[in-house]
Write a structure and sequence with these properties.
Elements: H1 2-6, H2 9-54
Length: 56
């Protein structure tokens, strides 16, 4: 019973799982922010591309 109470390997797995969850959340929100911020850039690229292809 003492050995079971001193075993901390389960706690380590839980800690790593929590760290992974927090890290994943930050990555997802970071990607969303970059995608939202770059939307205007891609619209501008599309406009310029269409304008360049329709010029005679």
């Amino acid at each position: 019973m003492r050995k079971l109470l001193r075993d901390q390997s389960g706690a380590t797995v839980i800690e790593y799982g929590l760290l992974l969850a927090v890290f994943s959340t930050f990555v997802i929100f970071g990607i969303k922010a970059v995608a939202t911020g770059s939307g205007g850039l891609w619209s501008l690229v599309e406009e310029k591309g269409v304008a360049a292809m329709t010029m005679h």
